[in-house]
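step: validate -> pass
step: tokenize input -> pass
step: predict -> running
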Amino acid sequence: PENLCRRFSKQKIVICGRSYQIKLVNPIRTITRYELGQYQLQQIEGNENITILTNTSIRKIEDNRVTTDDDKSFTFRYLVGADGSTSTIRKHLGLKTKRHIGFYYTVPELTNELSWYIDPGKMKTAYIWEFPHQKHTNVGIYFDPGVLKPKSARHCLQEHLRNRGYTQNQQAFRSAAVNYDYRGYRFGNIFLAGDAAGLASKGTGEGISFALVSGREIARLIIDPAHKTEEFRKILKIKNRQELLFKFYETFPPHQALLFRTFTKLMKYKGIQKMYGS
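step: predict -> pass
step: emit ->
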């Protein structure tokens, strides 16, 4: 919903101190996870066939039955795991997981540019983001802990905050795992959606749009088993293209800045943006 979002028709990419502006075919919208969740909740509250349990976790899954941490038990015909990058449902299915990490701060300063900062010499394959929201700016670093140590990543982020003049409140520091390891979404009568399925992008960490599409497609498939899931196939193609490109980027560390500049220039073309999901 437009009243909960900020909308950006262009983005700024800063590579080793040099700035580029890209006009976007499809505008990017920012919204807090909480506001998005509350908006979704409002769409289903009050329906007689829906029961919502809060502050409840699944303790056990067996024989088409789930048991919660307060010992309540529910049988199911279908189970949809939309429980994020540390998904209990995914663990139950015995699927391995590969994750990147995001460190971020919520700062009170408001900015008007949606920005990405890349500096392979300092951050290797990581990037720092500045995403303005309605009442704050979200500033963070997305990185592969196997390439850049978490301590170094946090140092890079704090240095960026100081250089940009942002308020550093340690209580506002957060971290999150990002599961990009897609291994399927249907396992009999159990489904995985969003980050639980590993649908986040390995290269960018972006996952909300893919999560929304996957949840919608799974619901349609449950209602109509003949549903073709074309939208799901489309996001998988985009994810695969992104990760093939990122693998190429990872392979040539000495040339990463040049490769990123080249791709940034190509992103000015509408066809390239659509091909890679922008």
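step: describe -> The longest strand covers residues 18-30.
step: cleanup -> pass
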